[in-house]
Amino acid sequence: MVKSKSMKNEDFKPNFPTEIITEGKAKVVVPKLKAFVKSPSEYAPSKAPVFYNPVMEFNRDLSILAMQAYQRGLDREITVCDPLTAGGVRGIRYALEVKGVRKVCVNDINENAFQLAKHNVALNKLGKRITVRNEDANLFLSKHSAPHKRFDAIDVDPFGSPVPYLDSAIRALRKGGLLALTATDMAPLCGVHPKACIRKYGGKPLRTEYCHELAIRLLAGCLASVAAKRDIGINVVFSHRLEHYVRLYATISYGAKAGDESIKQMGYILHCFKCFHREPAEGFFNIGQSLACRECNSKLSVAGPLWLGRIFDKQFVEVMEQETGRRVLSNGERTGKILSLIENETEAPITYYVVDKICDVLRLPVPSVKNVIEGLREDGYSACLTHFNSRGIRSNAPAAEICKVVRRTADSH
Ligand SMILES: C[S@@+](CC[C@H](N)C(=O)[O-])C[C@H]1O[C@@H](n2cnc3c(N)ncnc32)[C@H](O)[C@@H]1O
Ligand SMILES: [Zn+2]
Question: Could you tell me the distance, in angstroms and rounded to a whole number, from the CA of residue 276 to the centre of ligand 2?
Fold first, then answer.
């Protein structure tokens, strides 16, 4: 229900323990998490009457940088929507920290969250630039689907999967708009619950050592198919995996041709659990390749359909890096590190190898990742680290070569 505009923000007296915190440039009232858990093992953010997770500050820092990179690319004022806002911190930070943000609309179905978000907007003196609503996110986004009501950017940050909001978010995005998605349902996406992944994302996951990359590709693939139904194409500009979630940023382009182009970037990843070989099979409806591993003749396992296109845009990541240098972030060092890792892997081959996994199967002592990378380069292959896994390597070397170099490096220690 949309609440009366006459209700003053000072009227809000939370009936649960709160505290004031500073995150980025925002000063916000949040639930006092300690008051809602009986033991340290309990997950406090979801026990409180309004969701707040301090661990996600880093996620929000990266969101600020991505939004700024997007705005810089457009070079005009933008409007941003945070349809699952909880206490409003994300939307408030967009308004305070991203240059060129003219207007932000935040929304949450939870009455307590709505009240708290209104209070926080007033606390940050943003009443003129941020509107706060109390509706179901799909209803709220649908009300913004008419051409002149659409947003430049929408940040879908739900509990679990963003899939229930994809269609309405796409409809509420302007031509060329940016969609940011968080998915925390890693058990389906990483193949622990494959049926749930097939049901929600329309693609089969695989429990491989690079399952987090597959998670992003399954999410992007799902977005591409939902968008294509409306003659809209997607272009993934940035993505990352951290802690318990993956995050994806994609811009959209209107037109059947754009939709066809993104469907062309769908396909499968075939994986050999015996010898580590993997290969892409392009085409939504076509696993053209034989399902026998060309290296060891074992049966290949299939992930997909999923997004085989790029999952980072080098230029976009470079602008994010420049933006990091322009501001003081409490996670500044960590931000610089992850962006530099991602920048290095933007144009590297798909999927990565995990040195420890190879050593485990080959029963080898574990060498340093740096030495394996050097060994691969000495042999004439490309090799780089990946932000997905601190023990991971992206390389154009065949799996057998990777195993050979891992063995050689392990033996030399
Ligand atoms: C993970 S929290 C959002 C966290 C927030 N974006 C942040 O960065 O702090 C998800 C929020 O979605 C809200 N929510 C759940 N279902 C909803 C729906 N159908 N419509 C609108 N809000 C919803 C919940 O009340 C909760 O506040
Ligand atoms: Zn094989």
Answer: 6
